[in-house]
Design a protein that fits this description.
The protein is α/β, with parallel strands linked by helices. The strands form two sheets. Strands 1-2-3-4-7-8-9-11 form an eight-stranded parallel barrel, surrounded by nine helices. A two-stranded antiparallel sheet has the order 5-6. The longest helix is centred in the middle third of the chain and has 19 residues. The N and C termini lie close together (7 Å). The model has no long low-confidence stretch (mean pLDDT 96).
Length: 319
């Protein structure tokens, strides 16, 4: 059974509003929840950035949904703190929390004032952090001197049900690399031929048989024109290639980079349609590629209408 998750976008909404939306989503038939983890929004137009780890505890208490979050250990977060935060949520809410780890974006991680390393170095740092986190979850006392430093750290509160590390990847190259060590894949939607390459690369690297999560970026509204305009207003800073998304530093830089994006350019990054049947067809293709959890992110601001219509017409049609 495919899980259908509602994505809580902290870049776009206040935490109190997102708490209301996830409760509405559960009532409408969504079977899971997902949270972003940002220090800055992508754009000044979005204008929010609540602290996801505080919010997740409230959201999981207020609903019975399983939740996941994707974050980047190694710079803004020390891996021991990520291990502790995830273990605490997993202990309080057994078998309801999953964690995805990725190499991150300068937009969020550069706030520490430290050097922002190239992708190869960020990947190496990520793998070190994953090894540290897993060792802490296993109850080991960890001392490590490398790209990150840990001294005599031991995690005393650990969940009875072990946590998995889901690797976050945008490119096929990263998906293939993490296939050998991650417990699953988390990636974002794109045209089917590109998404298929990411899945195949993950399998090729050793990921076959492991769970796969897909963040589906969509825009649903009363008509196609409103859906397109809503996507353009909120998400035109987010349709660039991975190198730009990872390297730009500030919301103002993203806004400047997006000044030449046109509404008709949005289709490669966002599924735009006012027709529920069209969204059903797109989602069924995702399932055919092997994704077990579809994280639906309606990128425009009309969340209540999206939750209501998808709960009534889309979710029941997904096998």
């Amino acid at each position: 059974m495919v899980k259908m998750a509602y994505h809580a976008s902290h870049e776009q909404f206040k935490p109190s509003a997102l708490l209301k939306y996830v409760q509405m989503a559960e009532q409408a038939g969504f079977t899971a929840g997902s949270s972003s983890d940002h220090f800055h929004p992508w754009s000044d137009r979005q204008g929010e950035s609540g602290f996801s780890w505080a919010w997740l505890g409230a959201a999981m208490q207020a609903t019975s949904l399983p939740f996941g979050v994707i974050c980047a250990p190694g710079q803004r977060y020390h891996p021991a703190i990520v291990a502790q935060a995830a273990a605490t949520l997993a202990e309080m809410f057994p078998d309801r929390f999953w964690l995805s780890l990725a190499s991150g974006e300068a937009l969020n991680e550069r706030i520490t004032g430290e050097h922002w390393p190239p992708k190869s170095e960020r990947n190496a740092r990520l793998k070190e952090c994953v090894d540290i986190i897993r060792a802490l979850w296993a109850g080991e006392t960890v001392t490590h001197y490398g790209r990150v430093r840990v001294e005599e750290a031991k995690l005393y509160t650990r969940p009875e049900i072990p946590l998995r590390v889901i690797g976050g990847a945008v490119t096929a190259e990263t998906a293939e690399w993490l296939g050998s060590w991650a417990d699953g894949l988390y990636t974002i939607s794109r045209p089917p031929e590109e998404l298929k390459k990411v899945v195949e690369a993950f399998y090729r690297g050793g990921g076959e048989g492991k769970p796969m999560y897909l963040k589906v970026q969509l825009s649903y509204a009363r008509n196609d024109a409103e859906a397109r305009q809503g996507a353009y207003e909120q998400w035109r800073t987010n349709i660039f290639r991975g190198v730009a998304l990872a390297e730009l530093w500030t919301p103002k830089q993203f806004d400047a980079a997006a000044q030449f994006v046109r509404p008709e350019d949005m289709d490669n990054g966002v599924r735009i349609s006012a027709d529920p049947q069209q969204h059903i067809e797109w989602l069924q293709k995702d399932i055919e590629l092997g994704f077990q959890e579809l994280v639906l992110h309606n990128v425009n601001l009309e969340q209540e209408q999206f939750i209501e219509v998808f709960g009534e017409k889309v979710l029941p049609a997904i096998a």
